[in-house]
Amino acid sequence: MTSAPGTLYGVGVGPGDPELMTLKAARCIANVPVVAYFAARRRPSNARRIAAGLITAGHTELLFEYPVTTEVLAAEDSYEDLLLGCYDESAARVEAELVAGRDVAVLCEGDPLFYGSYMYIHNRLAARFTTRVVPGISSLTAGAAAIARPLACGDELLSVLSGVMSTDDLKQALVACDAAVIIKIGRNLTKVREVIESVGLIDRAWYVERASHEAEVCAPLADADASRAPYFSMIVIPSAVAGLR
Amino acid sequence: MTSAPGTLYGVGVGPGDPELMTLKAARCIANVPVVAYFAARRRPSNARRIAAGLITAGHTELLFEYPVTTEVLAAEDSYEDLLLGCYDESAARVEAELVAGRDVAVLCEGDPLFYGSYMYIHNRLAARFTTRVVPGISSLTAGAAAIARPLACGDELLSVLSGVMSTDDLKQALVACDAAVIIKIGRNLTKVREVIESVGLIDRAWYVERASHEAEVCAPLADADASRAPYFSMIVIPSAVAGLR
């Protein structure tokens, strides 16, 4: 007799403060036999660190190591292939647990479906296994909370941009929106800041690093130190009028 | 001797499922002596309903009633004034508690700084009182979780739009982005759907109502019933390629 297949859970653990996990995420992690998470090679997993208080010796842990850090080798031709292989292998390891009847929670910093790696596992398995997504606090709202400024209201257009975008694309998107959050800043900080200055938004822009972590840094973008911005830093440009009536 | 002023907490209680509150929100609500929330006139407060399991007889409750529902009278000249008066009065009631030394948690459906009413309290008081914002799961990530589809990845442009926007503004924004969430649908559904059809996105668009509630409804937008969409329904248009490598 074979057991019924396990359920795949994509679990957002939020931006960094373990207390910013949802009650549902905490319950799910405590109840599943297997937790899985991505990490940069030879670096601790951010998602695991956030959930550490809930992981016990009774859990089986699956670590998915990225072949290399995205930032360093993104320009190499072979990087896409390496990443594809990493996702295929990670999904196969999750699948083996599900087939054996064990539920698996894939832990995701922030939200599972918002610019994260969980989606690659999801798209390889969701059609064949029962799947549940537990949303998490994304960097979008964590960043707004960090600077304690209303992000957008009413019929305003709020855009999520990436520091990886070209100068022209960034400029065009910033001019078209009322408020913006730019993620994946890192070594793109100088470029992105120049674009923001060129469209006259520098006075409204905030640099936010490690939102909600103990080591959180918030500063007006004009004052941010471009020499040390980590990949997961961001820029928040709140609406000029949100909540100001 | 007068006591030190209380702290203002803007607390996101998430999209509807009480388990989608964060651990921090739950602790904050349990610990403050005063909880406050907005509600449409003579209607139960959504935010209070979500947090109901944490509110005890020991809490003082402040109910802020909107003068009328936004949808019905938004076109009237006087509505802005009525709303302004409501925000002024609500902030004054919070201020009285803070001055008396009591901490106040203003409960907000979704996230406090993402298209919500908390920002009007915040902007009236944050400069004068210690203020903490506890981010919440927004409709953005709750909607993606409801349809269980990756929203955006890599360097994609994700936009948050409002059903209140004009046809031209909606069209322009939809053409410019890779993925979109359109909030405040309600009676704008027919208009918004026509725009989405006109830009060729109807096959990717999902209608989501009451994400994460027991009464959640998800349907391909083409099949959604325009005669009954509530104000807090939304449309999710995930990226065409997120997670598909």
Describe the structure.
- Two copies of one chain form a homodimer.
- Chain A folds into two domains: 8-134, 3-Layer(aba) Sandwich (Cobalt-precorrin-4 Transmethylase, domain 1); 139-237, 2-Layer Sandwich (Methyltransferase, Cobalt-precorrin-4 Transmethylase, Domain 2).
- Helices cover 31% and strands 20% of the residues of chain A.
- Chain A contains eight helices and ten strands.
- The first copy, chain A, has helices at 23-31, 46-51, 70-73, 79-99, 118-125, 139-147, 167-176, 189-198, and strands at 8-12, 34-39, 60-65, 104-108, 131-134, 158-162, 179-183, 206-209, 217-220, 234-237.
- In chain A, strands 3-2-4-1-5 form a five-stranded parallel beta sheet, with helices on both faces.
- In chain A, strand 6, helix 7 and strand 7 (179-183) form a beta-alpha-beta unit.
- At the A-B interface, helix 1, helix 4, helix 5, strand 5 and helix 6 of A face helix 1, helix 4, helix 5, strand 5 and helix 6 of B.
